[in-house]
């Protein structure tokens, strides 16, 4: 699809250059002068002609020369001057009449537009035909070999043209690199049939054309030698090199010129990571560094551990001493004193929660009503709820460079057209695995049937029908510019047999630029690489796929494209319901897409997994309801269960999400699919944990105190840690609001407010609900049916069932004792350190990008389409180099700094693009650029005498083969019509160094852009460059915007797209700085891939700020920099391990994964903070404190986060959308497991080891017991360390 625009550019301009070969044969009136039926005996000598005058014409009107061997004729002075203007090498006598020369001149003008940019090539080429037509020594190198009788006259039917290899090689070398900008290709493809050497070129030129087919009316056999006995001498005029100083070409047309030795184009961004080769193994430096660092650290750690272990064994009294210290009452503990004296925020929170707990226990109804009412008020904004599905609004910030460039391009030039595409392919053979060629008569006829159905599509737009011709791209207002192999048959099935069927198509594969029979219905050549797929090199006949592309007009604004969207929906419906079964019945495959397909499928995806997501939430709700209850006993389960409380808690979580979405919706902020899919999961993760912690804290309180005191004590116990965790999470997400990527920014804003509201509802409404549930249970009322009361005899069994649960017993009796083993400590630290360093080592391998297939439902028809694109497409997306504020005044240097024809700077923009295209593997530029400026300057040139012309009244005069000079009814255009007095716009003397003045440029540019290309002047700019120049305000001498078009190389992977964008920007930056002109690259995909140029910076910055915010909150609440640092350390380790898992699982770094990484910080805080706070507030020895923390908070964290998320995440693996499986199931599962292991395994071990290290250090320093009691005790350090981790 990327090749389409350049196929529209050349309209009516490409009659085969073989027409030029008849130039020496034609005369408008000379046929009446020769009536002889005899042939003069050939004579080969100087001043003799081999053929002279006209003796007849063919049935198609082509004139035929006479085989008239006669002396050359001396022309009059005026005729001689005319000959000198075109053929300066011919002087004196000539072998052509004046009328014959005029016809020759009119026919030669067809070649001039192709070659005028390179004067040396043009002069050599004209000399070839000047010598053939008018040379006075024509008989020395021309020999008539065949004669045919026409209307009773003998006419030439074949000749030998003797030319030296020196001239032939020189001609080819001067022309082989000349560019024809309109088609982004070499001119030799048009004037020489793509010849690879001069012999192939001469063979192409010498072919005799059948009647009605453009080309020479007789055969020409080019020979490099003459018969030994003959006096003939091969034509050997001097040839001009393309690097000639007088007729030199530009560097783009003559890269071998000595003046064109400029530096190579800037290579794309290189991987700067170093590597070391160890034997046959190549290892990155960072990987080797991490491995060596790990060996050193583990060696030191184990050495320290063994030494510390021996000291413990040799000093058995220390253990008792230590235990005696740490078993002091909590009020006397050094740690407790430290926290109370140096943590004013902690003391304030405890005091607040004690007072608040007592108050809410007395007023639960009021608190519940007010808190829910506040959130419901915020939710009222849902009436303005809207979802943003446009990718450019999700992943590109309004201030992004790509967005600004796209806006500039669309407003000043023209929006890139819409693409509707079909890919028809053969099915590989199951045995060999190879797919057969699709280029068969049967398949082309099938494609005609498909095309007929597409033409019959009627889209419904506001009650009116929309057909393809209403919306398709029409360069000249006639036929649609459909890119299809059917264009070789003019899109008409009736011509299939007439043209020769499949053989004609294969002929056009090689002659699409040179044969009029191969021109499309919209009069432009169709590159086979744009309509075929699955071939290698230029083996088009081996293609395994037809690629049919329908370019459709695009407009700025969605409302302007509604008619196109209506047709696209009908197009997709037709493809699904009719075309797909039709194609499969022929054992072929069909993939298809429209411009609106991705957006439509994204919308469908938003509802595709509703059941899966609902099931995930339902499973979590069931688990929550069970885990909040007491140990199940059949006789009392209906009272001790917490189903109603769990359901109420889930409702509060959903209310917090609705409140956040409603608040921002009221402010006009649109939601995204990520918000709808991720935030409920995130808030539920955080909210469920808090729910478990609060319920379990209340259940741990003594039953012999009042409910008010139990609620107050529970809030004092867990309120500060919930506050710390929630504030950390809110700040972690709030900083994401400053990220420029809209998807991340909006997600962070919504998530921060949702977590804040969830925290608000947890400490207000949910605590009130706990109070109600406690009263219900105490009153023996049934869960879910509180109006029903059971007999009071069951009360004892209910109260008696409030022992430790299974998780509490597991944490106390299994988990904590096992972690206390010395060997386990060593292994845990070594393993976790290995994971962290290994993650650092492999994290640079994390690829950026987001595969389009992943974001779509698994059953989407676009899945097959993207596979087909990668497998079959052989062209890359179009690339535009946009020039801003081009000063075209004669005094400015801009023109020569941009163009690539004669006299342009060697380092001009277009020359540099041409050089870059010679290294496509590094520049990602496939071809030289189509240049409106080059073609305009060539169109203006006096050499192109058939292009820029004017009537006697100075108004625009079109070429002779266009109306009003030639009407459609005329088979052969007359030279004596209304345009006979037209003259070229300029003489050489009117120009300054072949450049127009400012006024001339200003006047003629609109003429050029409106000029229709045709055989007489292929340089016409209409269609090719209609939207390439912004004419608004150009009268001032400055063109605000213009573009030069080329292609990227085929891009198949996300890395290819990112590297192509990076290479184009680096190239443009280099050229802009060199030329001091504002130039930027633009391609339709840039806006979506710009984010990946600095996705690492965005991700790391966002994560660093979030972690920094958590550190500040922890520092304020705990007043311990060491504890806060430990928490941050563990968070960083969790992030590193998660990124390492992303590399292993093949998950790419993009906006979705960045959002998940940010979210992982919030969930990871839950794993760390509660355990740390519980350890801080517990009493006893370090082992006792660890066991107590794990028994209380460990069980809540494990049940509230780990198990809840596991049961919910596992359901997501059944989602229909690949994005859920990859970015939510896999990443969430990895996060839950990694967070659990760090929070409940690594964290306690780290604290114990650090406590032991502190003890050993104090022992070595000889500290006394009293001094040790005054300083932070081992448990205190342990508590701080646990909090940190």
- Note the gap between the termini: 54 Å
How many H/I helices? Answer: 46
Find the count of extended strands (DSSP E, 2+ residues): 25
Output mean pLDDT.
81
Radius of gyration: 42 Å
Strand content: 5-15%
Tell me roughly what share of residues is in helical segments.
Answer: 40-55%
**Helix/strand structural class:** alpha+beta
Q: Major sheet: order of its strands? A: 15-16-12-17
Largest sheet: 4 strands, antiparallel
Question: What are the main properties of this structure?
Answer:
1285 residues, alpha+beta, four-stranded antiparallel sheet, three-stranded mixed sheet, 52% helix, disordered C terminus, transport, signal, glycoprotein, disulfide bond
Structure description:
This protein is α+β, with helices and mostly antiparallel strands and 1285 residues long. 52% of the residues lie in helices and 9% in strands. It contains 46 helices and 25 strands. Strands 15-16-12-17 form a 4-stranded antiparallel sheet, with helices on both faces. A 3-stranded mixed sheet has the order 5-6-9. Strands 24-20-25 form a 3-stranded antiparallel sheet. β5 (142-150) and β6 (153-162) form a beta hairpin. Residues 1-23 form the signal peptide.
């Amino acid at each position: 699809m990327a090749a389409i625009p350049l196929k529209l550019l050349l309209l009516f301009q490409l009659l085969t250059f073989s027409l030029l070969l008849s130039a020496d044969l034609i005369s408008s009136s000379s046929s009446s002068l020769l009536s002889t039926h005899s042939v003069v005996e050939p004579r080969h000598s100087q001043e003799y002609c081999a053929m002279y005058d006209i003796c007849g014409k063919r049935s198609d009107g082509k004139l035929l020369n006479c085989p008239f061997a006669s002396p050359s004729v001396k022309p009059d002075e005026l005729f001689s001057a005319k000959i000198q203007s075109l053929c300066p090498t011919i002087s004196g006598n000539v072998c052509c009449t004046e009328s014959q020369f005029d016809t020759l001149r009119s026919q030669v003008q067809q070649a001039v537009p192709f070659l005028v940019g390179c004067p040396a090539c043009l002069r050599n080429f004209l000399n070839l035909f000047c010598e053939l037509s008018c040379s006075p020594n024509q008989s020395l190198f021309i020999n008539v070999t065949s004669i045919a009788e026409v209307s009773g006259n003998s006419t030439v039917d074949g000749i030998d043209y003797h030319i030296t290899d020196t001239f032939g090689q020189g001609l080819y070398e001067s022309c082989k690199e000349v560019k024809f900008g309109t088609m982004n290709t070499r001119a030799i493809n048009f004037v020489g049939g793509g010849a690879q050497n001069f012999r192939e070129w001469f063979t192409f030129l010498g072919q005799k054309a059948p009647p009605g087919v453009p080309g020479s009316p007789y055969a020409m056999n080019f020979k490099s030698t003459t018969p030994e006995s003959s006096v003939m001498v091969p034509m050997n005029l001097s040839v001009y090199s393309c690097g000639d100083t007088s007729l030199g070409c530009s560097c783009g047309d003559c890269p071998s010129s000595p003046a064109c030795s400029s530096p190579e184009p800037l290579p794309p961004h290189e991987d700067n990571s170093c590597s070391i080769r160890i034997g046959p193994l190549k290892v990155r430096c960072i990987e080797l560094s991490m491995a060596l660092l790990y060996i050193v650290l583990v060696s030191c750690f184990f050495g320290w551990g063994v030494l510390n272990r021996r000291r413990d064994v040799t000093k058995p009294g220390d253990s008792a001493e230590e235990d005696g210290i740490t078993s002091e009452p909590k009020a006397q503990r050094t740690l407790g004193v430290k926290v109370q004296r140096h943590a004013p925020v902690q003391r304030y929170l405890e005091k607040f929660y004690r007072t608040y707990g007592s108050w809410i226990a007395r007023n639960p109804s009021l608190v519940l009503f007010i808190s829910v009412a506040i959130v419901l008020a915020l939710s009222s904004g849902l009436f303005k709820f809207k979802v943003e599905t446009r990718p450019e609004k999700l992943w590109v910030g309004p201030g992004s460079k790509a967005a600004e460039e796209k806006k500039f391009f669309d407003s000043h030039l023209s929006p890139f057209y819409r693409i509707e595409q079909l890919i028809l392919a053969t099915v590989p053979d199951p045995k060999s695995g190879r797919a057969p060629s699709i280029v068969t008569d049967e398949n082309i006829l099938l494609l005609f049937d498909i095309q007929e159905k597409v033409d019959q599509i009627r889209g419904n737009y506001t009650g009116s029908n929309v057909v393809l011709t209403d919306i398709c791209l029409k360069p000249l207002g006639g036929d649609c510019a459909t890119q299809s192999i059917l264009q070789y048959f003019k899109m008409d099935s009736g011509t299939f047999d007439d043209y020769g069927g499949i053989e004609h198509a294969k002929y056009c594969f090689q002659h699409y630029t040179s044969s009029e029979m191969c021109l499309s219905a919209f009069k432009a050549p169709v590159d086979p690489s744009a309509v075929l797929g699955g071939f290698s090199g230029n083996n088009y006949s081996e293609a395994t796929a037809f690629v049919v592309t329908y370019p459709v007009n695009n407009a700025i604004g969605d409302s302007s494209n509604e008619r196109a969207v209506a047709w696209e929906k009908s197009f997709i419906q037709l493809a699904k319901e009719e075309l797909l079964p039709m194609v499969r019945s022929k054992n072929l495959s069909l993939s298809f897409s429209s411009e609106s397909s991705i957006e439509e499928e994204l919308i469908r995806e938003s509802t595709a997994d509703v059941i899966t997501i609902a099931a995930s939430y339902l499973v979590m709700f069931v688990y929550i309801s069970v885990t909040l209850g007491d140990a199940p006993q059949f006789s009392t389960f209906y009272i001790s269960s917490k189903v109603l409380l769990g359901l109420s808690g889930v409702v509060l979580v959903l209310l917090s999400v609705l409140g956040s979405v409603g608040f921002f919706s009221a402010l006009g902020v649109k939601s995204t699919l990520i918000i709808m899919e991720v935030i409920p999961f995130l808030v539920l993760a955080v909210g469920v944990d808090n729910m478990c912690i609060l319920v379990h804290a209340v259940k741990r309180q003594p039953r012999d105190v009042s409910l008010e005191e139990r609620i107050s004590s529970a809030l004092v116990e867990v309120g500060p840690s919930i506050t710390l965790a929630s504030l950390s999470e809110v700040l972690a997400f709030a900083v994401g609001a400053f990220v420029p990527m809209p998807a991340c920014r909006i997600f962070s804003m919504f998530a921060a407010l949702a977590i804040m509201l969830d925290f608000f509802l947890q400490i207000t409404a949910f605590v009130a609900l706990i109070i109600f549930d406690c009263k219900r249970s105490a009153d023996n009322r049934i869960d879910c049916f509180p109006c029903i009361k059971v007999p009071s005899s069951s009360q004892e069994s209910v109260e008696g069932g409030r022992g430790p649960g299974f998780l509490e017993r597991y944490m106390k009796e299994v988990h904590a004792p096992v972690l206390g083993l010395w060997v386990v400590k060593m292994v845990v630290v070594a393993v976790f350190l290995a994971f962290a360093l290994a993650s650092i080592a492999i994290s640079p391998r994390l690829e950026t990008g987001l595969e389009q297939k992943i974001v779509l439902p698994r059953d989407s028809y676009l899945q097959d389409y993207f596979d087909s694109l990668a497998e079959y497409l052989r062209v890359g997306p179009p690339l535009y180099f946009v020039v801003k504020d081009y000063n075209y005044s004669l005094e400015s240097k801009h023109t020569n700094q941009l163009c690539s024809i004669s006299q342009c700077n060697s380092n001009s923009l277009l020359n540099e693009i041409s050089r870059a295209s010679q290294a496509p593997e590094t520049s990602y530029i496939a071809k030289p650029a189509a240049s409106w400026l080059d073609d305009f300057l060539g169109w203006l040139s006096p050499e192109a005498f058939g292009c820029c012309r004017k009537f006697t009244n100075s108004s625009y005069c079109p070429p002779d083969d266009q109306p009003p000079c030639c009407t459609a009814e005329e088979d052969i255009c007359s030279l004596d019509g209304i345009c006979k007095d037209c003259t070229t716009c300029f003489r050489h003397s009117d120009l300054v160094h072949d450049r127009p003045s400012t006024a001339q440029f200003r006047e003629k540019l609109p003429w050029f852009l409106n000029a229709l290309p045709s055989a007489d002047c292929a340089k016409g700019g209409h269609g090719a460059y209609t939207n390439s120049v912004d004419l608004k305000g150009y009268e001032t001498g400055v063109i605000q915007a213009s573009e030069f078009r080329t292609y990227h190389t085929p891009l198949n992977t996300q890395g290819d797209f990112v590297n192509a964008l990076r290479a184009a920007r680096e190239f443009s930056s280099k050229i802009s700085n060199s030329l001091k002109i504002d130039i930027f690259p633009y391609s339709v995909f840039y806006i979506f891939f710009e984010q990946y140029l600095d996705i690492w910076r965005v991700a790391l910055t966002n994560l660093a700020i979030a972690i920094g915010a958590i550190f500040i909150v922890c520092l304020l609440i705990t007043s311990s920099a060491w504890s806060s640092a430990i928490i941050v350390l563990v968070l960083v380790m969790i992030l590193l391990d998660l990124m390492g898992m992303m590399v292993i699982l093949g998950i790419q770094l993009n906006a979705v994964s960045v959002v998940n990484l940010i979210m992982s910080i919030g969930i990871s805080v839950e794993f760390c903070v509660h355990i740390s706070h519980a350890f801080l507030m517990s009493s006893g020895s370090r082992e006792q404190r660890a066991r107590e923390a794990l028994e209380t908070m460990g069980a809540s964290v494990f049940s509230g986060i780990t198990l809840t998320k596991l049961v919910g995440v596992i359901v997501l693996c059944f989602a229909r959308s690949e994005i859920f499986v990859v970015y939510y199931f896999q990443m969430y599962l990895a996060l839950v497991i990694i967070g659990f292991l760090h929070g409940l395994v690594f964290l306690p071990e780290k604290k114990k080891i650090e406590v032991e290290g502190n003890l050993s250090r104090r022992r070595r320093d000889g500290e006394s017991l009293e001094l040790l009691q005054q300083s932070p005790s081992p448990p205190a350090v342990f508590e701080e360390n646990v909090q940190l981790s």
